[in-house]
Design brief:
Blueprint (H helix, E strand, L loop, with lengths): L1 E6 L13 H19 L4 E6 L2 H14 L6 H26 L6 E4 L2 E3 L12 E7 L1 H4 L7 E5 L2 E6 L6 E2 L2 H9 L3 E4 L5 E6 L2 E4 L6 H11 L4 E6 L4 E3 L7 E3 L1 E3 H9 L8 H15 L2 E6 L3 H5 L5 E4 L2
Parallel strand pairs: 1-2, 1-12, 2-9, 3-9, 4-10, 12-16, 15-17
Antiparallel strand pairs: 4-8, 5-7, 6-7, 10-11, 13-14, 16-17
Helix pairs in contact: 1-3, 2-3, 6-8, 7-8
């Protein structure tokens, strides 16, 4: 089976433990153990991941060191390398224990966005740390800021992914059954102008890019792993109920009704709908620790064509 697996932030950082490199490494290794259960069955696998906390850390380090402030597209590229390395190492060690040899590679991935995307006129994606009003006033005037719970946070555009520039190489390696870690953090956002590529101050939703990647690779399944055990109606209310299975049409109906929040479950469900409608494959949203069962459709919420 051809699989695209999208890892949420809980795959990389455990919010219930004190933040340190040791807990970071421990969480990544735990993730790799669960992924190895799937890989051992011989499936073709491409992995993508979030990077929100890591990008925030890089921005804070630059700010505190008072060093050169790198643009956001470069920060995303840095996290792709950092997280890719840790996943590569963890997966190699797990597969080595099982006596399985697979070539593993991280690909720095640029994702094309439309410079006319409405998101560029309405920055909405929070990045970096919170600031007091006095701190906020010292930031570059070009930053868009949002007031959240009495403090301020930078917000950037979140345009829709249009194309994956490295898709040719990714397809070639995927077909050869190499284990790929690609389009981390939604991909490095770029535009094309006058036959040149230019990075953008933006963050692409990683689930939407995961859906695009799954369509590009003609995957049989898109597996979105997060910190919740599936898709709920009336989430957070007394009447909430988890859905075991949905058709793409049913999922779209609930999405339009506002059942799935933007910036949370909404993009995950939309990515699944787009993938399923384009390929007639299956998509599953599940907890990371249920990855193996979810791949076999025994956990999480399945979104299918019919």
């Amino acid at each position: 089976m051809n699989l695209v697996i999208a890892l949420g932030g809980n795959a990389l950082l455990n919010p219930r433990k004190k933040s340190s490199y040791e807990t970071y490494e421990e969480t990544v290794n735990s993730t790799c153990r669960e992924l190895a259960r799937i890989i051992r069955e011989g499936h073709r696998v491409a992995i993508t991941h979030g990077n929100g906390p890591q990008v925030g850390d890089i921005m804070l380090q630059q700010e505190k060191a008072k060093t050169i402030s790198l643009p956001l597209d470069v920060d995303v590229a840095e996290t792709q390398g950092q997280i890719g390395y840790l996943l590569e190492r963890g997966l190699y060690n797990e597969l080595e224990k099982a006596g399985i040899e697979r070539k593993i590679i991280t690909i720095l991935t640029q994702v094309l966005v439309d410079p006319k995307d409405p998101a560029f006129s309405k920055p909405s994606k929070p990045v970096g740390r919170f600031y007091s009003k006095s701190e906020m006033l010292k930031l570059p005037k070009s930053y868009s800021m949002a007031k959240i719970n009495g403090k301020y946070r930078r917000v950037v555009p979140s345009p829709k992914p249009q194309d994956i520039l490295e898709k040719g190489v990714i397809k070639l390696l995927f077909e050869k059954n190499h284990l790929l870690i690609v389009s981390g953090g939604g991909g490095i956002p770029v535009i094309k102008e006058k036959k040149k590529i230019r990075g953008m101050e933006a963050v692409i939703d990683k689930d939407m890019t995961a859906g695009l990647l799954a369509k590009t690779l003609k995957a049989d399944m898109l597996l979105i792993l997060t910190d919740i055990d599936g898709v709920y109606l009336d989430f957070g209310q007394e009447s909430q109920r988890r859905l075991d299975k949905l058709t793409a049409s049913q999922a779209l109906k609930y999405l339009k009704e506002g059942q799935f929040r933007e910036g949370s479950m909404g993009p995950k469900v939309q990515a699944c709908i787009d993938f399923v409608k384009a390929t007639k494959g299956a998509a599953v949203i599940a907890r990371l620790k249920d990855a193996y069962k979810a791949m076999h459709k025994k956990a999480g919420t399945e979104i299918g064509y019919l």
